[in-house]
Amino acid sequence: MLAVGAIWAAAEALLFVVVPDVWVGLVAIRAPRRAAATLASIVLGAAAGAALLWLAVAAGFQLGPIIAALPGLSARDVAQVEAELGTQGSLAFLNGPLQGLPVKIYIHEASRLGTSLPELLLFVALNRIERIAPFTIVLAVAGTLFSGFVDRHRVPVTAGYLVSWAAFYAWYFASRAA
Fold first, then answer.
1. Which of 3, 81, 99, 123 is 20 to 30 A from residue 92's alpha carbon, by CA?
2. Containing structural domain, residue 148
3. Do residues 154 and 41 touch, judged by C-beta distance below 8 A?
4. 96: pLDDT confidence band, cut at 50, 70 and 90?
5. What's the DSSP call for residue 59?
6. For residues 158 and 146, what is the distance between their CA atoms, to the nearest angstrom?
7. What domain count does the chain have?
């Protein structure tokens, strides 16, 4: 379970477009006691992905156009993050969760603007905790309170959860394409 969270978060920090919240939420509902460890694995995985992206930028790879072309993202998002980082420095990482902007944009732009790796990793961790921890806590509490129901109806609960995420992403990608 922990490896899935870490790998998913690393991939999402790079180029994957589905957030690791999907995994940690499922864990929190079905095995609430594992939620905190799964969240920690996601934070560490995101840091690993951020370090890889930082290294790629340092090596001269031009990934901005690739990131801007990902589903749900745009060159306008990249420009917004660049402007935020220019005026707020790394504190801009804390804006992302409130604006629905993926951490990969902040990682790429901060790396391109010369943010040190230790500073980048700190703010990636804060960004992930700020955005994913509240969701994890709510679902872990729900998983604990309704554990009997979840245990008796594992398949429908899991299916409903995954269908909810599919509906969210259908809406998100459609709204961002408009």
1. 3
2. 2-177
3. no
4. confident
5. T
6. 13
7. 1
How buried is residue 50: exposed, middle or buried, by Cβ count under 10 Å (0-12/13-18/19+)? buried
Residue type at position 87: T
> CA torsion, points 75, 128, 131, 26, in degrees to nearest 10?
110
pLDDT, tens digit, 9 for 90 and up, residues 1-25: 799 999 999 999 999 999 999 999 9
Q: Which of 105, 55, 57, 53 is nearest to 83 (CA)?
A: 105
User: Which one, of 21, 7, 4, 1, lies nearest residue 100 by Cα?
Assistant: 21
pTM for this entry: 0.93
Residue type present at position 107: I
Our CA dihedral for 123, 125, 128, 133, rounded to 10 degrees, sits at: -130
Helices marked H in the chain — which ranges? 2-14, 21-30, 35-58, 64-68, 75-88, 96-99, 103-112, 117-145, 147-152, 154-177
Q: Does the pLDDT of residue 98 top 70, yes or no?
A: yes
Alpha-carbon span 127 to 21, nearest angstrom: 13
Q: Which of 111, 114, 10, 130 shows the shortest CA–CA distance to 54?
A: 111
